[in-house]
Structure formats: C-alpha cells, structure tokens
Design a protein that fits this description.
globular; mainly alpha; about 140 residues; about 0% strand
C-alpha cells in the first residue's frame, strides 16, 4: 500500500522516517520544530539514570527525524541528502568539549549550522520534476 492510501499512523511514520522523495518548506519547518516541542517535557523531568536513558533515546530519534526531513528538503532543492553530513559536522564541532578559549568557535559553528537550516527553510524548491521525484504538494 502506498503512503498516500495508508492510514494516518503510517503517513506520520513515513513523514518522519522516510528520506526518499521531496519536502516543501513548511513541512520542513514543522518537522524540525515538532521534536523540540515533543521533547520539552523530557527537559522538565528530574535528572537521573532514567532521564539520561530517555534523553539519549529522544536525542537519537530527533536526529533521525531531522536527518530524514533535511534529506527530503535537500532533494527538493536538487541536492543529495548526504549534504546533511555537513550540517551534522558543524553541530558536532559546536558540541564537542573544548577549552574555554575556543568557546567562540563553538558558538560560531552552531550559528553557521542554524543559518544553514534557516536557508533550507527559506529557499524555494525546484518547481519541476527532478531526479528525486515530483515537487511536493503546494499549501495554497
């Protein structure tokens, strides 16, 4: 059964975990914000071993969702999803422990990564069929 004829839970799973095809700007923005909103209660839990386990699981799930959405957004722009590796590398540099003297480097790489994601959300995709498929449906 195709995703178009699937029941809603399968459509949601397909949206969150399927990196093939193309996504428009609004789907990308909503998909990027959803994990942050859904994981907010985790930040309010008392910290301990259970919190650490849920934080790792939630963080990994958020990364997978962010990767699939970014790959589809890159497909809409005619680029391979592997370009997401550059954004991941920027976030990794920003999050790695560094001496206090390199704190500015962490901030700069995080800003560049967030700007890259903002550019992905702002640039319109290709209007025609490309090697990744037809354009995503319009919200108009």
């Amino acid at each position: 059964m195709s995703a178009a004829g699937a029941t809603p839970p399968f459509q949601i799973a397909d949206f969150l975990f399927n990196a093939s095809g193309r996504s428009g700007r609004w789907a990308y923005v909503v998909g990027q914000l959803a994990p942050a909103v859904l994981l907010q209660p985790l930040a309010m839990m008392p910290h301990g071993p259970l919190w650490t386990a849920w934080a790792w699981i939630g963080g990994f799930a958020s990364y997978v969702v962010m990767g699939t959405l970014t790959a589809r957004r890159l497909h809409d722009l005619g680029r391979a999803g592997w370009w997401f590796a550059w954004i991941t590398a920027l976030f990794a540099v920003a999050l790695l422990p560094k001496p206090p003297a390199l704190t500015t480097l962490s901030l700069a790489t995080a800003v560049v990564a967030f700007l890259a994601m903002a550019v992905l959300a702002a640039i319109p995709g290709e209007a025609a069929f490309n090697r990744f498929g037809p354009p995503p449906p319009s919200l108009r």
